[in-house]
Every structure is written in C-alpha cells, then in structure tokens.
Amino acid sequence: MSRALVLRLLIAFLGLVFILLTIWAGNIYHFSFAVTLVIMLSFGLATFLAEIIIIIDNLEKRIKRLFPALDLSAAEQASINETLDLYVRLKKSHSVVSTRIALLEFENIHKMLSAAEHGSDYIFHDIYLASMVLLGSLEPGQTFKVVSNLSKRFYWKTGIRGTEHTELNMQQARKGIKIQRIFVLYSRSELLELEEVFHEQASAGIDVYYAFRENLESILPYASFAISEDLCTGIVSHRQDILGKVTVTTNSEWISELSTRFEEIRVASENFRLQ
Fold first, then answer.
1. What is the DSSP string of 187-227?
2. Which residues cross the membrane (predicted)?
3. Containing domain of residue 209, as a range?
4. Which tens digit of pLDDT belongs to each residue from 264-273?
5. Residue 260, exposed/middle/buried by CB under 10 A (0-12, 13-18, 19+)?
6. 128 and 208 assigned to the same domain
C-alpha cells in the first residue's frame, strides 16, 4: 500500500468523523445551517488542498523517475544529456562498423552499473582509472597491495593516464597510505629500465619489490592485480596481452585469496632499497 493511498484513506476517515462531529455539535449547540455548511466546506477545502499536495508529491516522484538526472549537479546533467544526444544521433546513423561497436560498449554500461549495484564482479576497460579510483579512496593508515605488470618505463612516464597514475601514487604514499607494489619483470633489461621508477616510488615511501615472471609461474594467478582489504575491493588483470581490461570485484573470499597470493609473491621477490 502506497503512502499516498494511506494518506487518502486517513483523510477520508477523518472527514467522515468530522462531518459526524459537525452534525452532532450542530444539534447540541443549535448551529444554523449556514454555520454548519461553512464548517463542512472549510474541511472540504482542507481536504482538497491535502489532495493537491499528494498529487504534487507524486508528480515530483514520477518526474524524478522519468528524469533521474535531476538529482545530479548541473554539470553532470549537461554531460549526461550531451552523451545521450550523441548516442541518439549515432544510433540513427550507425552504418559505420566502428560506430556500431561503440554503441555496443555504451549499452554495456547498464550491465556494468547493475552488477556494481548488486555487488557483482564486472569488466572495466581502463586499468589506470580503476586503480586510481581505488587508490584515491584510501585513507591514511590503509593499505594498497599491487602485483604490477606495468614493467615498462613508458607505463609510468608517458600519457595523461600514466603520469596521473604515477603522481597519485606519490601523493597517497606521502599522505600515509601504505602502498606495497611488486613489479613482475620479464628480463634484466626491464629491471634497468625501471630503476628510475623504483627509486622515485621508494623515495615517496612506497614499498617496492620486483621479481621475474619465470620464478613466479606456480604462484602468480593473474597477469596483475591490486587489492584493498580495507575497502574490500580488488582489480584483476587476467592476461598480459589485454592490459587495459580488468575485472573489478568486491568478493571478500577472492580478495582474501589474492592477499594470500600477494604475500607468497612478496616473499619470493626482491625488495628494492634506496642506496
């Protein structure tokens, strides 16, 4: 039973009681017909106003259901409206294959948001952004554990996402977030290539480790992963050749398993120490 229906039934009941009381009082105190009529009309007007309020309240709810973006800021509304406008225009002229692919990706957003709402795992297509959101959500004293396959210098030093990711790591480490990062390398040349990155991160207070993939075959479950047990969130990259595609999870059992694997990998790794 809706709240509006309950209010209407309550008003109807009170109206009936009020009419009976008015008639009774009129007989006792000998109200004239005009006085009785005015009292009843006054209550009728109050009932009408109450109904108007209920209608307005229901209308507001319906408008918000039809236009949920109204709860967002003006800038967010503008962004969503612009995106929807672009989607509609492309939908009407989707003859180009690349456009059809883009439209499919847009339509997958609903599935991703629905999965997130229900606490299910979902696929996200930007390893940097996913990692930055998780790392940026941590408070001083909390821990961020990473087994990273970003084993080339350009992953950390080039591009907007790469540099933003690097800067955020430094900032959060200096704020007191405990970051432990294990770099998974393929060769000695990568070790030399990343020495500057290692030094910068270690100088910022990040615990830097490294290991060669050939020594981790039996204990490395995925290409890379990042977890925060404090926020019960994990980001997993399943394959080296599709680095940008990650699974985001809030499954506590999986995160606990990844934490155990992280410790096993850390024990098998070398700790980079500042000279």
1. SHHHHHHTHHHHHHHHHTT-EEEEEEGGG-TTT--SSEEEE
2. 5-25, 31-56
3. 122-271
4. 999 999 999 8
5. exposed
6. yes
